[in-house]
Amino acid sequence: MELKAIPHNPYTVTTDSDHNDPIYDDLLEQNFEADKSNQVWVTDITYIWTTKGWLYLAIVLDLYARKVVDWYTANHMRKDLVLNALGMAIVSRQPDEGLIVHSDRGSQYASVDYREELASIEALGSMSRKGNPYDNACAETFFATLKKELIYRRSFMNKKEITKVVNWYISSFYNDAIPRMVIYPLINSNVGN
Predict the structure, then answer these.
(1) pLDDT under 70 in the chain at which residues?
(2) Is 131 left (phi over 0), alpha (psi -120 to 50) or beta?
């Protein structure tokens, strides 16, 4: 049948939390439930290898529906990466004040510009404990799913190609598959296979 297992890679710390910027308290404390849309967003960055170098992906995920609200790719991990993802999510969703936006303690999320963006919409910042990926498990799980279902299955020639494929995966596959999996977990257990 030519089935191939996708190997599990051990967790690698990639967050630069060795900075002097202020840190938000962890408002979630691993409670990943939300009663409505735009109540809690989680955000994170991952990296994807191409033959032309690394591509970085920042996502904003709504905990209520477990859908990716918006995302942004770049060839760097500077604060602009996360600011663009957050800015597009804000424009597309127009969240009410009091939205919680949870991230790790990376320097991008602790930057003055990021904090000002959250303050401009009266959102509450929240950050994971240092070195604890379980505090941002929903974002980490999305990245693991993306990599197992898409990235590890083939090689990508360049950043333009992987950006196109990631855009398709999020908008046309992952976000569309979520309602079917949540509503019909037992009946439709092979969705996407």
Answers:
(1) 3-19, 177-193
(2) left
The tokens describing 28, both together, are 């979630």
> What pLDDT, on the 0 to 100 scale, is given for residue 59?
98
Question: Which CATH superfamily is 40-183 part of?
Answer: Ribonuclease H-like superfamily/Ribonuclease H (3.30.420.10)
Residue 182 has what pLDDT? 42
H or E, element range at 119? helix 112-120
Domain locations in the chain as residue ranges: 40-183
Task: Please compute, for residue 40, the number of CA atoms within 13 A of its CA located in the half-sphere on the CB side.
Answer: 22
**Taking the model in full, what pTM does it have?**
0.82
Residue whose C-alpha is closest to residue 105's, from 188, 165, 22, 31:
22
